[in-house]
Structure formats: structure tokens, C-alpha cells
Amino acid sequence: MNITLNYESLSLGRKILMILDLKTKVDKLGIEDRVSRITKRSLKSEAKLQGLKMILSMIDLTTLEGMDTDKRVEQLCYKATHLHQEFPDLPNVAAVCVYPNMVKTASNFLKDSEVKVASVATAFPSGNSSLEVKIQETKEAVFNGAEEIDMVISRGKFHSGEYNYVFDEIAIIKENCGDKARLKVILETGELGDYDHIRLASEIAIKAGADFIKTSTGKIKPAATLPITLVMLEAIKDHYYNTGKMVGMKPAGGISNSKLALQYLIMVKETLGNLWLDKHWFRFGASSLANDVLMQLLKQKTGFYQSNNYFSKD
Fold first, then answer.
1. Model-wide pTM > 0.85
2. End-to-end Cα spacing for the chain
3. Which residue among 35, 113, 274, 276 is the one 20 to 30 A from 264 at the CA level?
4. Residue 68 catalytic?
5. Which of 116, 174, 184, 250 is catalytic?
């Protein structure tokens, strides 16, 4: 059943036409069978080492706490560019993600590095605020140097069936990112229900102009899972086949060990191909993951695990 949805934005007075094919259903058994097979894979030492370094380069180190200070953000930025003194050839992480009021601090610290500055916006993590407030937060973050914006969708509107409201809000935030920042759209999949709703939310975000789609805020459980991420990867794949346009993916929350992260990489490679095995198109929202990857790399080098005391606490 093809349904045409029309929505007129009250704030900008523009009409947006979005056509979604709600007939498509996610094959739940197929998704879970593929994930089960992926989790049983094993990697040779050389491939594992390459994968661990790739994971590091894809991590968004994050601090999103009420007790965040300039000093805390600066410490995280230092870690982003100095992961371990015994591994000077390690890649830097992809980005540091902070609240809008901390963007200037992070931007000043990282201005001479390749690490991006990302900022949550749009009333993170609930998404419950006016469109004007969400636009203002986005503008403030971009003005202060944010190169990436992580926005949350209005889940209440989504559950009410106001899909074009969700679409239009994403499109407006994307517009306010301008050419200076890429937009990651957080679906908060733990609140969306079944795979069909996750697929629908993914399609809305992609069609509205998301540069990335992201599973979660990391503030609720369940957050990222392999099956949910696979559903979103399939939406990205279908969009690429239909339009030739690439969209990035960011699982976030609950990915704390290297073994699980390597399984994500296998899934990305087998679903989307090698083009997506790059920090420009795939990220991990998992700060604690960095330490586990570093421990695994040290184990590969020395033959034994180093104590947690040798790694900074994020």
C-alpha cells in the first residue's frame, strides 16, 4: 500500500511531499538469522589487528553529563589525540561529542587536529522542545565550531503517526547545519518498538536529508544492538541502490567490547561493502570501547593484558 503524506510546516510555511512505501515489512527471522551467523565468525590475528585500529578511528568520544566542565572536555579532547603513549602510530578517534555550550572549548582544543567536533542538539536526549529552541541550539553549536550535529527525532510525533512532522523537522535542522556540519539523526530505537517502525524511522530520516542515521542517545536501554543496526543498514543499502547516495551509520550505546565492535564491522562490510568501512561513513558512539580496544592492541603486542588502571576513565 503506497501512502502519500503531505505536511505544511507552520514555522517556515513550506510544503514537503514525502512518499513512503509502508507495504515493505522487515523479515525478522531473516535479520536475526544473519546476526546469529555473524556472531559465530572468527578472525585471524592480522585481520583482527587491522579491525581494532579501524574501530579506534571510528569512535566518537562523548561526554554528555550535567557535571561537564571545560576541564573535563579538554581532558577528553586530549585523550582523543593521545590514546596511548606506547602506540604513537595509532589513529585518532573520529570525533569528540559534547553539549552545544561546550563546543567552543572542544573546537579550540582540537583546531589543529583531524578530530571532528560533534554536538548534540534539539533538546537532547528527549527531543521534547519547540522547533525554535531546536533551531537555536543547532545554530549555536555550528557557529561555535561544531562540524557534526547529532539531533534526536520527536518520538512522540512519530508514535502519533505524524511522520511528515518528523520529516520536516529533520529537514529544517539539516538546513540550519548549512555546509559547515553533517547531520546525524538519532532515532532512539529502544523507544520505537518493532523492526518495522525502526525501518520506517530510518527511511524518514534518510529521505529528509540525514548524513548519518544513529540508533540511540545512550541514555536508555536497549540502545544499539546488532539486529537493530542491521535493519538500519538495509535501509541505507536500499537508498543507495535507488539513488546512488551514501548515508552513514552510527550505532551508539551498549558497545563496550572489541569482540562486539568487530562483529559490527563484519556486518557493515557484508551489507554495504568496503566503502562504508571508513570513519566518514561509519561511527561508534561508545566512549568506553576505546579503552577495551587499547587493551586488546596491547595484548597483541605484549602477550598480556594491562590493568584498567593504565587507561584514563572517560
1. yes
2. 48
3. 113
4. no
5. 250
